[in-house]
From TrEMBL:
Alphabetically ordered keywords of this record: Membrane, Transmembrane, Transmembrane helix
Protein name stated in the entry: CKLF like MARVEL transmembrane domain containing 6
Domain MARVEL: 25-152
Membrane topology of the entry: Multi-pass membrane protein
Cellular compartment(s): Membrane
GO cellular component terms given for this protein: membrane
PANTHER family in the cross-refs: CKLF-LIKE MARVEL TRANSMEMBRANE DOMAIN-CONTAINING PROTEIN 6, MARVEL-CONTAINING POTENTIAL LIPID RAFT-ASSOCIATED PROTEIN
Region (Disordered): 157-186
Amino acid sequence: MASEVYSPTTAPNPKSSWCLVPSKHLDKTRFVVKLMEVLLSFVAFVLEEVVSSCVGCFALYFFEFVSCTAFLFTLLLLVVLSTPFHNQVGITCWPSVDFCYTAAISLLLFVSSVIFSADNSNSDLEKSAVAFGFMALVAFLVDLILFYKTKGFPFQKGGKAQSSNGVGAEVPDTLPETERLNDVTQ
């Protein structure tokens, strides 16, 4: 008897899920690309860690730092943007954070991969680490291109800064009200 009463009126809440893909910050395609970024940078990091000796240790250590940073911070950004946690962090400019982070890591991956490919002992592990570094770079560049195509450049919004709380928002040109709210005529 109770199931007959409650079944037609109750429905599951689709927003109570822990994973919010697609969302306003991350669509399904960019979610998959970010997963690829995480996996490729992780493999590059692991392959670099397995290298037992180095000729130019600066190149190895710089590549290690960049690939580990790319892995950890991209994983963190992926988790934050694909869960409700981004609402609790207190950052309102997620598109700018995402774009700047992806561009910066792309640049660092390019520099570190070029330096490491130029200064290594040509072992198979080092060559494969460099290859995965360049594949991760390609994934980050694809992410930047997809971001630009879907959302545009995050810092250019008609020349005006956007705000979520109304500060700095553009006020439309309207005439002042002519009718009084509490018109008391006696």
